[in-house]
Amino acid sequence: GNSVTQMEGPVTLSEEAFLTINCTYTATGYPSLFWYVQYPGEGLQLLLKATKADDKGSNKGFEATYRKETTSFHLEKGSVQVSDSAVYFCALLHGGATNKLIFGTGTLLAVQP
Amino acid sequence: DAGVTQSPTHLIKTRGQQVTLRCSPKSGHDTVSWYQQALGQGPQFIFQYYEEEERQRGNFPDRFSGHQFPNYSSELNVNALLLGDSALYLCASSLYPRTSRNGYTFGSGTRLTVV
User: In Å, how far is B15's CA from the nearest CA of chain A?
Assistant: First the structure.
């Protein structure tokens, strides 16, 4: 079945460090891929998305490229800030009959000043 | 533009009781999905409503039921509560059939604690 695997956290970085959170997926066909962010005590916010192979999603300095050959959608940011501290979820969605999001387990990012 | 609104924000119930959670979708959206997020885990799909019917269901028992109203708002009902039902319940809305392209908009959730 469809699934998403994320690198385990927590990931602890100093401010202005480079961030990579790995995400790989298993799915048939061509799912859409998403990164959601969850700040403490809040719901999920869509961070970025990509709907086909080689698409690059980007938002607020974060980027992720849909790599079908490696079934990956790694999240990157060149210079993290303390305000980026949150839990990040990678997710996939198939349209049509299986129109539901499948999430990874989440990666906690802690950025220290 | 109002996003997804959920109520209540927090709730404490006793084992065996029943609970109803409510969700108003983002303006312009017609599809509502419910997710359960246990502590330290990713959200798990419960079910999805479109045109007032349950269209898909995840691996949850019949104790979990729902409803969608003509104004697209939705309720999640859980009967015979168990301690393991303690979780953050998230409502997500979307516009069918563009979900694959645009994804879902999530509410802030209802934190249910069963004691």
Answer: 24
Residue A99 and residue B56: Cβ atoms within 8 Å?
Answer: yes
Look at the block and give the residue holding tokens 């998305």.
A49
The predicted-structure confidence for B12-23, as pLDDT tens digits, reads as follows: 999 999 999 999
Q: Which residue of B has its CA nearest to A5?
A: B42
Q: State the Cα–Cα distance between residues B92 and B6, nearest whole angstrom.
A: 10
CA B10 vs. chain centroid, Å, equals: 14
In sequence order, the 6+-apart residues with CB closer than 8 A to the CB of B45 are A100, A101, A102, B33, B34, B35, B56, B58
Token pair of B36, please?
A: 């359960």
Q: Which residues of B have a CB under 8 Å from any CB of A?
A: 4, 6, 33, 35, 40-45, 48, 55-56, 58, 88, 90, 92, 96-97, 99-109
Residue A31 to residue B100: CA distance in whole angstroms: 8
Selection from B103, B89, B78, B101 nearest residue B26 by Cα? B103
Q: Count the Cβ atoms, other than its own, within 10 Å of residue A64.
A: 26
Distance CA A12, CA A82 (A): 11
Nearest 5 degrees, angle CA A41-CA A42-CA A45? Answer: 150
B63-110: per-residue pLDDT in tens?
999 999 999 999 999 999 999 999 999 999 988 766 666 778 999 999
